[in-house]
Amino acid sequence: MRIVVLMKPVPDTAAGGERLTAEMRLDRAAVPAVVNANDEYALEAAIKLTEAGDGEITVLAMAPSNAPETMRKALAMGAHRGVLVTDSSLEGSDTLSTARVLAAALETLEYDLVFAGADTSDGGAGVVGPGVAALLGLPLLSYAAKIEPDETAGQVRVRRISPTGFDVLEAPMPALVVCTQALGEPRYPSLKGIMAARSKEIVTRSLADLDLGGQAVGGAASGTKVLESTPPPPRAATRVVREPADVAADQVVAFLAERRII
Amino acid sequence: MLFGPFEHVPAYPLVFPLFYGAAVIFALVMARHLRVFAVAGPSTVSGNIPARLWGVVEYALIQTRMFKDPRAALMHWGIFWGFVLLTVGTANAVTGGFIQAVLSWPLDSLLWTAVSALQNVVTVIVLVAIGYAFFRRLVTRPARLTYTTDALVILALIGGVVATELLAQAFEFARYGDQPGAFVASALAVPFRSILRPGGVETGFISLWWAHIALVALFLVYLPYSKHLHIVTSFFNIYFRKLAPRGELPSMDLEREDATFGLKTLQDLGWKDLLDGFTCTECGRCQAACPAWATGKPLNPKTFIMGIRDMAADAEEGVPLIPNSPSVRETYGLTDGVRPELLARPIVDTAIPFDAVWDCVTCGACVEACPVLIEHVDKIVGLRRNLVLDESRFPQEMAGAMRNMEGVGNPWGQPRSTRTDWTRGLPFEVPTVASLAADGRLDEIEVLYWVGCAAAFDERNRRVARAFATCLNAAGVRFAILGQEESCTGDPARRMGNDYLYQILASGNVETLNRYGMNERTIVTACPHCFNVIGNEYGQLGGSFEVVHHSVYLDRLLTSGRLRIGEDGAVAGKVTYHDPCYLTRYNGIESAPRDALAAVPGLQLEEMERHGRNTFCCGAGGGRMWMEETRGTRINQERTRQALATGAETVAVACPFCMVMLKDGLADAGRGPGTEDPVSIADIAELLAESAIPAEGGRRLSVLQ
After folding, report:
1. N or C: which end of chain A has fewer CB within 10 A?
2. How far apart are CA B291 and CA B636, in angstroms?
3. What is the tens place of the pLDDT at every residue in B400-433?
4. Nearest C-alpha of chain A: how many angstroms from B238?
5. Is residue B701 pLDDT above 70, yes or no?
6. How far apart are the first and last CA of chain B?
7. What was the ipTM of the complex prediction?
């Protein structure tokens, strides 16, 4: 079982202070980078599928050249190798550009499944995974809560969360699965994992190494532009219920019901 | 005459094969125990021989720690010292009267007469004590004891050894006449002499005398298999005890490739850890002191140590008592060694359940309670180290706290930029070390206030930081903070078992502190965990700092008159003070916080039953602040109950974790703010700040809004 997990280094949301540069691009120097949280869930799902038998997990990222530092964290969790596409001309890429680059990079790899996180904490578009599937003509299985590949049959079965319950989807492999947090909490890397990650391979590729088939990518080719960015307004006064649990529960329910939240 | 004192004992020389044969068996079984010790890891035992020897006197001979339970202690003292004195008689019997010959020489046998009299007295004492011990085990049955046949066998053996010796003497006197000194035996001899026929008396004497020797031999053979082995091992365990500060966990070299991190199997333990196991007497004082056990959790420090001993004893399976000769070993392919598969068993889930490893609050109450100085906490953290660093197997909630410490340098997961938010609105400036250094004013700093994450980020504890800063300001102390350059000290990570993360955080802090020359200044902190780790543990990473807890610092300011308290301040009323484990038990600071509290006008201190070094944890130590408490009842609720039992109107604390836990406990007990009969909670600094007289030109800040 060969699984490629798409991964993006994002600013650590806990650190706060996320901001844009004058060119309306993410200021990556302002905040330390971490593995995008939803990608960690996808990676965890991949590790669970491969740790029992033999399998190989490749982490694929399109990111600035300092990304290996963050990618090592994914390798420490249990991925086997990393592939990083980095090129200064990719700065300012929009989601379509990103999907094109990742798809071109996937063409150079062998895989049975591609896992993507639901979305990223910085961009939040949630379309790169589906975009890659579309560009490569892979079956797209989204909102996965359970993933069951059957290597002998060459099929993958996914339990997909739907508004009314869940669907069971099946598709031939290779396929692309968009993972959800229902797949299980990402593991905390052991020190053994951290030490092993130090010597794992991370292959770096530039745009020249990829066959993009003439598609335009990068900041200049991006069809979307960030025009304005405003921080969210400070949180309004919070209401704190300080009653004993039984009374408090009623008050909370009433509060939510009043606003038609439940 | 050869063997004169035993002229009436038929076949007396048979004593020698019987006793010395038993002694050889004893030695062989002990040697087999040591074979397992030999495959265990090394234990660091530093020098300081005088301190070690004094410890043996204090803990093994005077047995100071036993006297926390006076009745059990008196019983034990009676049996121990009685047994020691009676051994003189046994030694005499197995040396053909050598002891008697030596002791009879000076002062015309007066010394031997005195010894005989004393022996008779202690025999009675031992028998009474043994009777009481049986009564406890069979009738009153205290919860902390472990009820085994072994314990009853040992009591019966001791009682038998002592009783047969005394009775044999009485029968001997009845038959052959009294000897000077042994007055109890003489008194007992009177009825025997009058009731029994001389032949019966003689038979009684012979059978009792030999029964005594047989029981002594049996005792020797049985002892190495019994918990009673502590009469041998406790001296060594006390001598080899940990002399490093109690709050200093063993250091870890993480760069050793292919090593097992932490403790997984018996082989990862040091030999001293196995000695701990063979020293445990199952008295259960640790169990009785343990807050996790008290609240119905699976952790029992006693059964953990017993489990280690049992694993070590099990590992001896197949090791012959008498080693085979090299030729026999070669012929039959025997190793005679401890079988590797018996050493490879993991300690977790054999000696201690997985859940119990995480129930520990590292409060050290077990270590404090143990009369023979067994170290429980270091071993539990060692197991955690293995589970975290090797196996990544731990309660899910911990991952969040560890990621936060890793990412933003604090377990709360708050941005670094908000670290100084607590200073907003204070009527004086709280400068950062960096800003003073930039202005070349670093020399002005009298103390560095190490704020700690709790005081920087937790809403309630921010008020404590404000109060403490107010006290410093009122006393005219020039202080500074590190601000955004401060990181979690790493204490929670270390006690959760993540020494890797601890070392990253701690070495970062050591570097920052040294960069500003804070190794030549005083650091003050209101957090006992920061206090312990900076003072006791940063040395392992090359940091040497003088750190003072704020309760001590405030007490000094009060004593020197720099911090003055106005009599017009708020009247505090009845206050109970909760000793933080890492301040009092680990670092022995008991009187300073109380002295500081005494300065508060109208304060009347009501002690809880468990205070000082016997304090009861709030439930948040050992990283448990960031874990769910799903098993048993809540430790903070139990401690709150104890605090409320004093009838205090205010619970005073000196630790940010205790503050959070007991504040929640009061709320859960329906005594929180806004309730009918509220009990308030305040840090020592808050109580002082309320009535501190501000420095010239300053104003008093109302901190307890």
Report:
1. C
2. 10
3. 999 999 989 999 999 999 999 999 999 999 999 9
4. 35
5. no
6. 92
7. 0.85
DSSP conformation letters of B140-173: I--TTS---HHHHHHHHHHHHHHHHHHHHHHHHH
pLDDT confidence of B696, banded at 50, 70, 90? low
Closest CA to B448 of B518, B368, B350: B518
Instruction: Decide if A191 and B413 are in contact by the 8 Å CB cutoff.
Output: no
Residue among B389, B404, B484 with most chain A CBs within 10 A, to mutate: B389
Tell me the chain B residues in contact with residue A189 when contact means C-beta distances shorter than 8 Å. 392
CB-based contact B650:B573 (threshold 8 Å): yes
Looking at residue B699, its pLDDT comes to 53
- B39 versus B366: which is more confidently predicted? B366
Q: Cβ B418–A16 below 8 Å, yes or no?
A: yes
B1 pLDDT more than 60: no
Q: How many CB atoms lie within 10 A of CB B375?
A: 20
pLDDT in tens, B322-349: 887 778 877 887 777 788 888 889 999 9
CATH numbers and ranges of domains, chain A: 2-221 (3.40.50.620)
Note whether A137 contacts B: Cβ–Cβ < 8 A: no
The CATH T-level fold of domain B266-389 is: Fumarate Reductase Iron-sulfur Protein; Chain B, domain 2 (1.10.1060)
Alpha helices in A52-127 (DSSP H): 68-77, 95-107
Say if the Cβ atoms of A14 and B408 lie within 8 Å. yes
| Chain-centre distance for alpha carbon B137 | 24
CATH architecture group of domain B6-239:
Up-down Bundle (1.20)
Would you give the DSSP letter of residue B692? B
Q: Are B704 and B685 in contact (CB under 8 A)?
A: no
Residues of chain B found within 8 Å of residue A12, distances taken between Cβ atoms:
407-408
For A78-119, write each residue's pLDDT tens digit.
999 999 999 999 988 999 999 999 999 999 999 999 999 999
Among partner residues A16, A188, A244, which is closest to B402 by beta-carbon distance? Answer: A188
What is the pTM for the complete model shown? 0.91
> How far is it, in rounded angstroms, from Cα A119 to Cα A207?
24
**Residue B699: CB partners within 8 Å, gap ≥ 6?**
B427
Considering chain B, tell me which residue range(s) the CATH 1.20.950 domain(s) occupy: 6-239
What residue spans in chain B does CATH classification 1.10.1060 cover? 266-389
* Contact residues, A window 203-242, toward B, CB-based 8 Å cutoff: 242
The predicted-structure confidence for B630-645, as pLDDT tens digits, reads as follows 999 999 999 999 999 9
pLDDT beneath 50, residues of chain A: none
Token pair 């009369």 is found at B371
Residue A193 sits at the chain B interface (C-beta within 8 Å): yes
Structure tokens at A227: 């025009």
CA distance B341 to chain A (A): 23
Reported residue count of chain B is: 705
